[in-house]
Amino acid sequence: MSLVPAATRALRLLRFLATRPGPVSAAAIAAELGVPRSSVYQLLEAMAEEGFVTHLPEERRWGLGVAAFEIGSAYLRHDGVERLARPLLHQLTESTGATAHLGVLHGADTLYLLKEQPPHAAPLITGVGVRLPAHLTASGRAMLARLPRAQVRALYPDTAAFTDRTGRGPATPGELRRVLEEERRQGWSIEDGQVTEGFVSVAAAASDHNGRPAAAISLTVPSARPVTPQALAGRARDAAAELTRRLDGRASH
Where is the IclR-ED domain positioned along the sequence (predicted)? Predict the structure, then answer.
């Protein structure tokens, strides 16, 4: 038996929420942990303060919070997602002439882990280690579109959570929700001048073995370049699908 029962319960609670398709009630959590509901509420409130769970008062349910997602993303970074993606980005840049990036979500930011660019490419603000607001980048929205809606609401609860760079892009929770719904249906995301004027990016998300967004692959070109976003998006989706396959293969060994 654990010498730290509260820690054991917290870990079991996180694991339980991670296996559910959506937020669940405190009663369901209490039944899973086998403890009184009052104890579950105390545990949930403490975990919510640290960002590991989030409360949906209208639904009277609880789901995973941003901190839990950040830990999952950190695991993927430490376990070599860059090594799996690097050759894919190199192939994309050679075949399309676009600048390719690998990004992950870090809270409400896109954090860029890799960048491949062709010779004589125009300079971009993006680079390894750079963070940009996820709701403005194609990479960020490709991953946000694959998150549970409750988690997106936790990241963007009100207009104060939105930053602006060029006067374009979603600026309210409602606008972001509509954009994500559209991009979720089409299977890829696009941003045109929302980060840097004169450049367009498309991106598609790769998933881990649980079906959650692990990273996103994006392609960026000058807006004036004679190539359709749909053509680039197809290449990004193929590369993201291959990265998903590689991540799943790694998990099965």
Answer: 67-249
